[in-house]
User: Fold these one by one.
Assistant:
Number 1:
Amino acid sequence: MKCQRCGSEPFERFRGGMYCRECFAVKYEGAVESAVRRYRMIGENERVLAAVSGGKDSVAMLSVLEKLKKRFRFEFSSLFIDLGIGDYTRNSKRIVEDICKKLDIELHVVRLCDYGFTIDDVSGKTCSVCGNVKRYIMNRFARENGFDSVATGHCAEDILSNFLKNLYSGNIQWSEKQRPRLDGYDRMVTKIRPLYEMGERENILYVLSRGLPFVEDECPHAPSTIWKEMVYDIERRIPGFKISVLRNLARERREDSAEYRYCRICGEITSSDICQFCRNVARFSRNQ
Ligand code: Q46
Ligand code: ZN
């Protein structure tokens, strides 16, 4: 079988058709572009900060944003958060630096150790602390440096597995946040997810088709994959499940006008007196 677009050597299937490397990449980029248009993710002249970990998803996002920036007329830079997870962070940082150099993308680095701790110092709910730290740093860095939005490389399976997990634990408010574009308010910067409709397998094949390096090791704190396995299992039984739920989740809903306050220590938005990030600093920092 040959590439159905140009007749060259086949590389992989994409959504029903067989394509060579170049045509696979073009079809993939076209699919991301359609999602960016469908959900009106990026406005003209917006300054986008792309959070990159070096994994397949964020590398795919960087490469596509680079391709789309002229057509959609936005500017973008990238942000790597040095979480201090031993060799994993060191390798990831090196790879991110290589990619940004190769694609000529400006790279900013924020080190968690400058706040007095690293993720390796955290005991217990590591990923929950890490998630809080990343959200806090991305938002604050973007706002303080004049960015209009933060782009993350969450893929379809990330969003759906988070949705199921949060539904299971009764965390409905979090489920409501699983949308392709969440408009900012007050001190919160807009969040966008350009890979909202892309599967993780498609992302890895795209990165390979473009010959880009990516972090292949898993974070040593990586949680169980049970929720993702469930998403794959449901999709196997009900083909089309992923895209249907994602599009339903993306529908505009009226937001509950949730009450918010400002953290007594750092001034960021929080639902209580002191934000979770400052609580984490107080708990884990070696400087206290
Ligand atoms: S980096 Fe952080 Fe992930 Fe590692 S500690 Fe967990 S959340 S697994 S995406
Ligand atoms: Zn705070």
Number 2:
Amino acid sequence: MKLKVELVPPESRKERPEDPLSLEFGSVFTDHMFAMFYADNEWKNPRIGPYSNLSLDPAALCLHYGQGIFEGLKSYRRGERVFLFRPRKNLERLNASAIRMVMPQIDIDFALEALIELLRVERDWIPELKGSSLYVRPTMIATEPKLGVRASHTYLYYVILSPVGPYFKEGFSPVKIMVSEKYVRAADGGVGQAKTIGNYAASLLGGKEAMERGYSQVMWLDSHERKYIEEAGTMNIFVLFDDELATPPLSGTILPGITRESAMQIAQDWGYSLNERPIAIDEVIDGIKSGKVKEIFGTGTAAIIAPIGELYFREKPHIVGDGTIGALSQRMFDELTGIQSGEREDTRGWVFEIE
Ligand code: COI
């Protein structure tokens, strides 16, 4: 496939934000986007062109039955050098989500080439300021107009870019999370492990209620017993019990986070005893009370590492440790952001440099 590039004339380009750190996450978009279409069992017409509205039939299947998936990754700049963090992992996960949602596979090499080209075009949009990056949002949606419930025969894959600072308005400081027993995010056999749009829709009401009570996100419990922690709004969860770092296993209801996997690898390299195991919410609350729980943090592309300072469960707030950033959370944040931004040595081959 030959990639077509149609650039916005320099005089029509947008003004770039001066301070990406102060932007609300994902609220500003660059001048260009990548798009390609799927029909007759193949991807076609790959193009980098102006960022613009989509034209969709009102009966497009994504709008009615939620056949849509996406990814999130970040690009960093240090002087003239531009980096992506484990981009193939995201594209592989997109393909895994596509299988679950009966959507077509993309060619990872081609999608990566197109992304690299898009980032070359938008190089000046990649912020250099510490704590900022250019967030990359690959998206695939079903476009066929049809009201019968079945998988679409046509799709659109596109990539948009947004300069971002921290995901939470608090920045890198402890966030407050509310544990929900009322709602669940995903159930056994469902689509919890896929990065599909409906999972986020399912989380909104719980998220709204948490926010109304002053909490940033919800911690979800398993759908069967409401006993085990699963993940939080936009993050996987890690709990440090004394010297054991534990995180819930990928049981099918949890998003297989790339930051999660990276944090696990780093913790193991640092000599932590790392366990993927079911973690009962009672074990966490008891551990907070007894002091056995030293830290809790979330991991995610957008959130990176988010120290959790307070868990609200059954009408009671529980302060984790002394409510401040734990030593491991800080060390993990420094290590990950250092590697991602090219400041620290990348001994694991995770950083992908764009020439
Ligand atoms: C990410 O961390 O990249 C996510 O996809 C979470 C998000 C929905 C903001």
